[in-house]
Amino acid sequence: MAAHIRKPLLMLGLLGLLIAPAANAGPSILFDAATGEVISHERAGEPWYPASLTKLMTAYIVFKKLKAGTLRLDQKILVSPLAASQEPSKVGIRAGGTITVDLALQTLLVYSANDMAYVLAEAANGTVFNFVQEMNATAQKLGLNATHFVNPNGLFDPRQLTSARDIGALAAVIISEFPENSHYFSQQHVAIGKRKLLNRNSLIRTMPEADGMKTGFVCNSGFNLVASATRGGRKLIAVVLGAPNSGSRAEIARTLLADGFALGSLPNRPRLAQISDVALGEIVPADMTGTVCKKKPPVNVVRAKDLAGWGISFGNYETLQKADMALRGRLINPTGMDAPGKVGVVRMPNKLGFAAMLWNIDQSTSQALCNDYRSQNATCDVMAPEAFAQIAVLSKEPEPKAKAQAPVAQGSDAQKIDNKKITKKTAH
């Protein structure tokens, strides 16, 4: 299978940024885990939203802590209110409860539990903020140049990015450095009390050679999969991003792996390290929401009453979509990548359009951020708490309706997605 040529990128005139094309088939790569030999690739260096593929880095750091002796598999770790508040998929242990590191890892990697990612992060580094800093430092150390993390579970944030090339490299490092932990990726299910939670990677049940590794899904990313398989002592890794459903991500990976085994090895193929990443900030990733979650609004509007603290505005735009793209473009800028606070699009009162905003920060941070953006000739206005309060007073927003049903997990291989039930943050 010949290496594919990366498709042209589209210019986004509003921001002068590039936006990745929304294609039926997203980025992919197939390579030899031991040698790095790339058998095929499609847009492998293009940035994409990782969803729960993020948990591979979470597991890698926890594996390192276990080897260093700062964590133990039998150690009981606390479920904090923050961890318990995470959206599905989740185990659902209440705040104040405990779980062993071993069982937390199983639920993280087999069932893709978002709450357990936070439990492990807090146990490993004290706070999620500290853990995410280590995630990003580790990504830099490993040469994952298109990768940036904001949280340890993959729930959507426009600044949480990776590429097929990067996530494949991370998978290969895990396999190489921690072969003793391979069972976490291949086990068929994990038992929580009387519940038996199936591995979300359906290939380990349907492809004899398959032995790992991890699924990922949020509406923005589409259906992602890292799949490993071994035949005759040769292990291949396939990375599939942005598939339209769970069945197609598994079938694409199965085809890649089967073709790779059939083709064998050739000396003139490129190595994984030779595949170039698009630099962080050059491209706004494609958003798959309109393809995989058709009933979900393409952009979630933040209620003006939820604005708090100091903040910044990146300007007002006539449509939700333009404001959202402006926000994403500003946030993947080096200035915004590690900015604290909350982000979103706010409907302005008096028909003034939609504002791209960042809030819940302090005064000095808001002023420093705007100074940096203005030095790049980007629109940025500091927003004081009084300004947010005035917007809230002028806005005539109805109180949100109570949810008729509890959130459901997205992307399970064992169920079809009911678009009427989709929540904006679920990931696996």
Structural commentary:
Helix 1 runs parallel beside helix 4 (114-125), helix 3 crosses helix 4 and helix 4 (114-125) crosses helix 5 (128-141). The chain has helices spanning 54-68, 81-84, 101-110, 114-125, 128-141, 164-177, 183-186, 203-206, 246-263, 289-292, 320-331, 334-337, 363-375, 385-394, and strands at 10-12, 17-19, 28-32, 38-42, 76-78, 98-100, 189-192, 195-198, 210-218, 222-231, 234-243, 283-284, 301-302, 310-317, 342-347, 354-361, 381-383. The protein folds into 2 domains: 10-274, Beta-lactamase (3-Layer(aba) Sandwich); 304-394, Alpha-Beta Plaits (2-Layer Sandwich), CATH 3.30.70. It has 14 helices and 17 strands. 32% of the residues lie in helices and 21% in strands.
Distinctive features:
alpha+beta, Alpha-Beta Plaits, globular
Question: How is this structure best summarized?
Answer:
The chain is an alpha+beta fold.
Per-chain topology:
Layout: E1 10-12, E2 17-19, E3 28-32, E4 38-42, H1 54-68, E5 76-78, H2 81-84, E6 98-100, H3 101-110, H4 114-125, H5 128-141, H6 164-177, H7 183-186, E7 189-192, E8 195-198, H8 203-206, E9 210-218, E10 222-231, E11 234-243, H9 246-263, E12 283-284, H10 289-292, E13 301-302, E14 310-317, H11 320-331, H12 334-337, E15 342-347, E16 354-361, H13 363-375, E17 381-383, H14 385-394
Parallel strand pairs: 2-12, 13-15
Antiparallel strand pairs: 1-2, 3-4, 3-11, 5-6, 7-8, 9-10, 10-11, 14-16, 14-17, 15-16
Helix pairs in contact: 1-4, 3-4, 4-5
